[in-house]
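Q: What would this chain look like folded?
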Amino acid sequence: MRWRALAVCLVAGAMTLLDVSIVNVALPSIREGLDAGNDTIQWVVAGYGLAFGILLVPAGRLGDARNRRTVFMWGVVVFTIASACCGAAQDPFWLGVARVVQGLGGGLITPQVSGFIQNLFKGPERGRAFGLFGATIGVSTAVGPLLGGLLVQLGGPEHGWRLVFYVNVPIGILLLFLARRYLPVAARGPKQSLDPVGVVLFGTAMLFVLLPLVRGGQSSSLSERPWWMLGISAALLVVFVLWERRWAATSRETLVDLSLVKVRSYMLGLGLGTFYFAGFTSIFIILTLYLQQGLDYTALEAGASQLPFAVGSATSAWLGGRLVEKYGRGLVVVGLVLISVALVLIDIVVPLLEGDVGLKLAPLFLLAGLGGGLVITPNITLALSEVEPARAGAGGGLLQTAQRVGSAIGVAIVLALFFERVASSRGDYAAALSYSLHVTISFVLIALAFGLADVVRRARTDE
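A: My prediction, written as structure tokens:
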């Protein structure tokens, strides 16, 4: 029964994660079909990520404090209805609104997945379960452009983008039936506080972190973004910490367990995940832009070119889940080294390639995928290994919030630099790819530093 429950969780997780990347290849047909401007198109992408990221920690806490299955199912309902509204949208404004609501549904679902895994599995089985979850993350992110390209081609320029959203509807309906049958209902205990003031403070702080990163369009200069909002966010986070301490002093449960700061494995895993996702997420976007706009690949061809990454990531994530108990943080370090080497080699060879570039890059995409799969799965397992199961939802939600913030930072910086180089080099997309790859490699190397720090810490602890 536990593994059936896991299967339900993984399908839901894949559905929400696919919508992060699957929409990118449909943007040109959305622009044409709805006569949408750049700002509205940006909100189709950014609105989802913004709502998704803001709700992760509060939704995780809600699952911990109440019935996790109920929160999960409400998330699926919201996500499914919003997906249908996206597909049926007749103007850009309502598509943007529906995407925000869809992001809220995804934010309700995702932290429950890590919470269920933390509560249902222990020891080596937990590693295997997180291994499958990691494989789902890697495959969903990499397969999104391919599936989106296929649906756009099947539906044509007028209806293809609608299929990208409608495909979620039958999956969501099926998930509701399966969730009710296979997901466990938490045993009733003392009613816990939901910390409403903490929820508002933290959610508002995350809003002011993410807004500068998603406003202004994907190609806007970094200097044009409202960075002053980060100052407001920092002030709100200070107030949030003070409030959480006061709330905890009354013996009531807080939104974020501040004792997590003292759990070194969790904090190092959080830092590693933040910087890895800053580099990891932006890789697919700049590669898609290079292949589609620089080499005139179709959406389907660009998506298919990234399939080797999905294969490598799924394979190594599954293996990583089985090996993490034995090799620990060293496994993550190996994965980060592999993906760093692959990105450096891509940077070196792209200017030298002619004809069938996507096919010739396949071995390096495979190597990057093998490395990536060894990062996500073991890092989640190790970061949450010392977190109490009662705090699994909130702990996992905070971990994934950091990943979403990292993704937003990476995409904002890398895309701005990519388009700036395209403009300054008069359309040299290969040069723009190389320039922006330097930034993604830097993010991955910072993540590697966090991994090495944890390896050293664990070695000292074992002495």
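The two ends are 40 Å apart (CA to CA).
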